[in-house]
Amino acid sequence: MGAPPKSDVPVITPDHLPEADGLIFGFPTRFGMMAAQFKAFFDSTGGLWRTQALAGKPAGIFYSTGSQGSGQETTALTAITQLTHHGMIFVPIGYTFGAGMFEMEQVKGGSPYGAGTFAGDGSRQPSEIEMAQAFHQGKIIATVAKKLKQSA
């Protein structure tokens, strides 16, 4: 939708998803929900849904919005339905990021549902605290995936 292609970023297909022990999906928000391109990606996972190939996999969500109040939490809530239909286990970060969840001195995205950032007009890059929250979320998903794999 007008964004330049990023040729250095690997592109996956739904067929790659079952190979993962855990998944973290990240997408921009459009009017309080995931962007249509990402919804189209999920729509293309019908074969995986039919066989429940992703059932039991831990999954998280992170997001980017243009401004505060642009739907970070509603984006997560509407995306959880995709995970649920696949039988995936939604793993939120809750308030485990500690004091970073209550930061009020700087602009910071994210919520108990997952890490987030405010992109503004697209020129703003994630802040150090937003990057730390995203790294924290990755550790949580990896820890849960490892525990599930060990118990299998």
From TrEMBL:
Belongs to the WrbA family. InterPro entries: Flavodoxin/NO_synth, Flavoprotein-like_sf, Flavoprotein_WrbA-like, FMN_Rdtase-like_dom. Residues 1-141 form the Flavodoxin-like domain. It catalyses: a quinone + NADPH + H(+) = a quinol + NADP(+); a quinone + NADH + H(+) = a quinol + NAD(+). This is NAD(P)H dehydrogenase (quinone). GO terms for cellular component: membrane. Pfam families: FMN_red. Its EC number is 1.6.5.2. GO terms for molecular function: FMN binding; NAD(P)H dehydrogenase (quinone) activity. It is an enzyme of class 1 (oxidoreductase). Its cofactor is FMN. It comes from Salvia splendens.
